[in-house]
Amino acid sequence: MTNFVKKFSLQSRSRFGETRRGDYKKTNDARSSRGTGWDSEAKHYDDLVGERGHFFHESIVSPKLTEYMEKIKPTSVIDFGCGQGFVERLVNGSVSYLGIDSSKQLISIAQKRVKERNHEFKVADATAKIDVPAHSFDLATCILALQNMESAAGLVRNISYSLKPGGHAFIVINHPHFRTPRSTGWGSFDKGVSYRWVSRYLSSFSIPIRMHPSMGSKSPVTLSYHFSLDYLSSLFEKSGLSIVRIEEWASGKKSVGQNATRENRSRSEIPVFMGLILERK
Questions:
Q1: Containing H/E element for 8?
Q2: Which of 12, 61, 70, 233 makes a 20 to 30 Å CA pair with 277?
Q3: 259 half-sphere exposure, CB direction, 13 A CA radius
Q4: DSSP character string of 114-146
Q5: SS (H, E, C) 167-182
Q6: Measured between alpha carbons, how far is 235 from 115 in angstroms, rounded to an integer?
């Protein structure tokens, strides 16, 4: 196995969906009764993301979302699964913002950083009924959080409920085709070809992930959820959301060394993130 393959198949993952092999067991489906609480991991997650975001936040998500907001110029934003407030820090002070997350600890961290008077955070389940005025936001976001939600259907309903007619949604997920823990990974042929393997895709399922692999069975566990694009698009249609555009983004990382050329070619050709841009009818 090359260093390139080891780096992508063995690195540990948190909210970014990256998982070390052997650190999880698959469950039957995405309706497992186990929760995905993040309170115990809030400090660890905040240390990882920080003020400006993780590498992928800073290099991919932030430029893409900023560009999109400049294009549509929303006056109000609702952010589902807001975590410690990464999106809030990208939203102009003249734009009202509401961040929603089920973790009290992450919301507490976000509230300590907020500087704009019309930006606020609320502890709430992004997939359950939410206490916000119907059809009152121009833009709904969900950034690398859908994979941590058991009910994609609940999230999509809330996005539709919160958006004004003609409002937009900007959702970023780990690429469901190429970046699902245990079911995808990097491989390499002897002839110098790097590839991405996929063993499972169409079904919905959940994956327990050890947040601190070195702790073994004592590590806190969260759940990552996989949903196919086919399933997600059916939810959008049922909730009155049209797909405006699907964007696919490569990691942007670069290899060095004797295998750099083929490894970087594979990285540039195989996307690991997907951006879903929707419009409410």
A1: helix 3-10
A2: 12
A3: 15
A4: ---TTEEEEE--TTS---S-TT-EEEEEEES-G
A5: EEEEEEEECCCCCCCC
A6: 35
C-alpha separations of 197 from 5, 72, 136 in Å:
11, 37, 42
Residues 186-209: pLDDT tens digits? 888 777 788 999 999 999 999 988
Domains along the chain with CATH numbers = 3-280 (3.40.50.150)
Q: Which two tokens stand for residue 33?
A: 């009764």
Return d(Cα 102, Cα 119) in angstroms, integer. Answer: 18
Nearest to 141 by CA among 205, 62, 204: 62
Q: Cα dist. 96→65, 74, 75, 80, 81 in Å?
A: 16, 9, 6, 15, 17
Alpha-carbon distance of 1 to 92, in angstroms, equals: 46
Q: Which residues of 80-94 are buried (b: 16+ CB within 10 A; e: fewer)?
A: bbbbbbbbbbbbeee
Query: Which residue type is seen at 114?
Result: V
Reduced to 3 states (helix: H, G, I; strand: E, B; else coil), residue 44 is helix
pLDDT in tens, 12-68: 333 443 333 222 233 333 333 344 467 777 776 777 776 766 788 888 999 999 999
Look up the pTM and report it: 0.84
Structural tokens at position 42 = 């809030």
- Beta pairing class for 184-188 and 241-249: unpaired
